Amino acid sequence: MDQKPPLTLYLAAPRGFCAGVDRAIKIVEMALQKWGAPVYVRHEIVHNKFVVDSLRDKGAVFVEELDECPDDRPVIFSAHGVPKAVPAEARRREMVYVDATCPLVSKVHVEAERHHAAGLQMIMIGHAGHPEVLGTMGQLPEGEVILVETVGDVALIAPRDPERLAFITQTTLSVDDTAAIVAALQARFPAIVGPAKEDICYATTNRQASVKAVADKIDALLVIGAPNSSNSRRLVEVGRAAGCAYSQLVMRADQIDWRAIAGSRAVGVTAGASAPEVLVDEVVQAFRDRYDLSVEMVETARENVEFKVPRVLREA
Ligand code: 0CM
Ligand code: SF4
């Protein structure tokens, strides 16, 4: 029998589910228990096909817009948040709804409202079209939030009054890219008001830090996550920027390009905040099947954040 080649797998930690994802999934499960199927979910509850498929099997129906839901079934809003018009419409239709927006996204919504009430125009750093960006921009009237995606954009924007500005950010951005954009904003608009650093959440920050810690030990990095998952895609970029040229997003083990990593002696594995640990186990097993594997953990932080589900689901 052929001997398997040796390989060290570095498992980055923290990785995988964050408190907001955990809570959002629980909300769907508890809503199904409380009200029975079908329960509607506006947008993927979190950006992971495996999670969405498992909830669909239990009776969740995923739609993109509220007008695809009947009036008489409960609807849940995804972890990424929704524009104000969405719950307003649900109330108008007298629907039962549960908002699974991550509390750390809601915190940014509140910040935006507070700055708006103080008469400041907002600059949002984020990715155009992402549901979190649509949700956060949709907290304020049209024209009150200007989106900036890159350092280059900063020179191009034309705010109403450069002296009366504040910035907010998407929660799942690259920490380093965002720092550069914030610096460019502060250079062009010295009076701009903002949070102490940015609004990037603890989970995004911690997962990027652990990728940086494994990057110099590995020949290839696999990030378990979905192509529409912002935080997961940022981990791939962080891996590349930290010197790991082969950094690749995979949804699960069957997407691993084994030829591309042939010859590697050390591979890093991490998972985005919406990727379940069973998929990490699956990837580790796929390596074990092909290699004489040693697994090492690279842990850069411990997380103990937990968010409560809304009261309506805690009541019998
Ligand atoms: O925002 P992102 O695309 O990273 O969403 P996700 O569902 O992959 O991760 C969790 C969240 C939020 C908000
Ligand atoms: Fe909340 Fe951050 Fe998780 Fe998004 S990635 S759900 S903002 S904790």
From TrEMBL:
Listed pathway(s) = Isoprenoid biosynthesis; dimethylallyl diphosphate biosynthesis; dimethylallyl diphosphate from (2E)-4-hydroxy-3-methylbutenyl diphosphate: step 1/1; Isoprenoid biosynthesis; isopentenyl diphosphate biosynthesis via DXP pathway; isopentenyl diphosphate from 1-deoxy-D-xylulose 5-phosphate: step 6/6
Binding-site residues for (2E)-4-hydroxy-3-methylbut-2-enyl diphosphate, renumbered to this chain: 47, 80, 130, 171, 229-231, 274
Query: Per its UniProt record, what InterPro entries does this chain match?
Result: LytB/IspH (IPR003451)
Cofactor binding note from Swiss-Prot or TrEMBL = Binds 1 [4Fe-4S] cluster per subunit.
- Would the keyword Iron turn up in this protein's UniProt record? yes
Sites binding isopentenyl diphosphate sit at 47, 80, 130, 229-231, 274
Q: EC top class, in one word?
A: oxidoreductase
GO molecular function list: 4 iron, 4 sulfur cluster binding; 4-hydroxy-3-methylbut-2-enyl diphosphate reductase activity; metal ion binding
What is the protein name for this chain? 4-hydroxy-3-methylbut-2-enyl diphosphate reductase
